[in-house]
Amino acid sequence: MFSKKDVVFIAKDNHIKLTKRCDVILSPEFYWVLRKKLPVKTVRQARKLCNSIFDDILPDGKYIFKAVKDGAYFLLFAYDTSFILKNLEKIGIDINMISRVYFAQNELSGDIAYSLKDKIFVNNDGIFTVVPKDLFDGNMQNIDDIKFEKLSNIVFPIDRYNLFIDKKSLNFIIIILMIYISCITFELFIYKNDLNKIINFKQSLYAKYNLPSTSWQIASIERKINKINSDEIKLRKKIYKILTLKLKPGEYFTNLVFQKKSFKFTIKLNQVKKAEEIKKQLERYFTIMHAVVLDKDLKMELTYE
Amino acid sequence: MNKIHPAFMILLLVVLAIFIDIKKDELSKNIMAENRNVSKLNIELKNISLLKNRWLNSKNKIASIMKNSTYNGVNFTQESFKNKIIIKADNMTPNQLKTFANKILNSYIKIKKLQITRNNHKTSILVEIEL
C-alpha cells in the first residue's frame, strides 16, 4: 500500500515490504523523546545534557542523543540504532531500502490524532505517544491518507552497517588519516620543490662551466678538444722519437724544422754508413719522404699520419 | 558527515593516502635519479671545461716559460699576431735549449712550427704557437 510513496510511515509490529528506496518516518515506539525547558541556549549545549536527563529513564542500550529547538523548549531525542534495526528487520523491512530516517514527533502536526490499524498517535503536551485505538474516541486521521510531501530537515542517522567500532572511534580514525594525508601532502610539495631545485641546478651547471646546454653542441666541443689532444700528443711523441735518436759522440743535429706534419732535419754524422741505421730507426714511426747524405750530413724529410 | 558514512569516508581517505604515497615514492625516486644525473653531469662538464681550457692562455704559458733565470745570455724575440705568436731564442747553450724545448713540449701549447738551428756551439730555436 505504500509502494507508490517515497515516504513511508513505520510503526512497530506493522509489517511492510519496501519495493524501492524511500525515506521513512518512525513511530514513537522506536525512540524516546522529552520536551523540556533547559538553562541552555544552543542545541549543542542541550544535547550534552541529554545523557544525564535520560539516565534514569532509558533501559540498557547504546543510545544516540539529539536535541531540537521547539520554541522556548527543547525536544530531546534518544534512540538505539540496534533496537531500531532489529525491529525494522522483524517487520520485514530491508534496511538497504531506507534512505533517510525521520521521527514522527517532527513530521506529524500537533492538532489532531492519527490512526494506524489498532494504534493511535496522540499529541500529549507536545509529545506524540501511542495509545490503543479502544481508549481513544476523539477525531483522528488515518496515516495512510497522509501524503508526506514536505518533511522537516531533522534527519536521524542510523548506522545500518553495525560496525564493531563506534562512530566516535571512526571519527578519530578519520582525523588521524586527515593529519597523515596532510603530512604526506606537505612532504610531496617539499619533494616537488626539491626536484625543481635539482633541475634548476642542472641548468645552472652549463652556465657555470661556460658550456652550451644542448648535448650535440657539447659533443661537438668534446670531439674538437679530443682531436687537439690527440694531435698534440702525437706530435710530441714524434718529436721525442727524432730527438732521442741514438747518436754517437761527435754526431749532432745542425737543424730541425717541424711544420704541418712534416719534419726536415740535418744530422752531422761521423760515418756515412750510420745514415742507414738512422733511417731504420725512423721508418717504423714516419714515412720517409727524402733522405740524402752529403759530405757526412744526413738530410731527411719525414711525415706522419 | 551525515551524508557520507564514516567507514566509507575512511576508505576514501585510505585510497587518497595510498595515492599520495605512491606519488611521493615516484617523486622520491625521480629526485634520486636526478641527483645521480646531476652529479654525473657535473663531473662530465667539469672535465670538458678543463680540457677546453687546457689549450687556452698560451700567451701566459709561454711568458712564464721565458721568465726562467736559466736563460741568461739568451736573446728572446717575440712577435704577436691575431692567432699566433712567434718566439725566437738565439745564443742558447745545449742545456738551455734542452730546458726550453722540454718546457714547451710539456706545456699545453698548440705548436704550429718548431725550428732548431745549430751554429757552432750556440743554438737558436723558433717556435710558432697557435692561440
Helix content of chain A: 25-40%
Strand order in space, largest sheet of chain A: 9-8-7-10
Distance between the termini of chain A: 108 Å
Strand content of chain B: 25-35%
The radius of gyration computed from the alpha-carbon positions of chain A, rounded to a whole number of angstroms, is: 53 Å
In the predicted model, the low-confidence regions of chain A spanning at least 5 consecutive residues are: 1-5
| Oligomeric state as shown | heterodimer
Q: In one word, what is the shape of chain A?
A: rod-shaped
Largest sheet of chain A: 4 strands, mixed
Largest interface, C-beta within 8 A: A-B, 53 and 45 residues
Q: Indicate the radius of gyration of chain B in whole angstroms.
A: 33 Å
The proportion of residues forming helix of chain B, as a percent range, comes to 40-55%
Give the overall average pLDDT of chain B: 87
Instruction: Give the tally of β-strands of chain A.
Output: 14
Overview of the structural elements:
The complex is a heterodimer of chains A (305) and B (131). Chain A is built from six helices and 14 strands. Chain A is of the alpha+beta class and 305 residues long. Chain A has a four-stranded mixed beta sheet, with no helix packed on it. A four-stranded antiparallel beta sheet of chain A has the order 11-12-14-13, with helices on one face. A three-stranded parallel beta sheet of chain A has the order 1-2-6. Chain A starts with 6 loop residues before the first strand and ends with a strand. Chain B is α+β, with helices and mostly antiparallel strands. In chain B, a hairpin with a 3-residue loop joins strand 1 (75-80) and strand 2 (84-92). Strand 11 of chain A pairs antiparallel with strand 3 (110-119) of chain B.
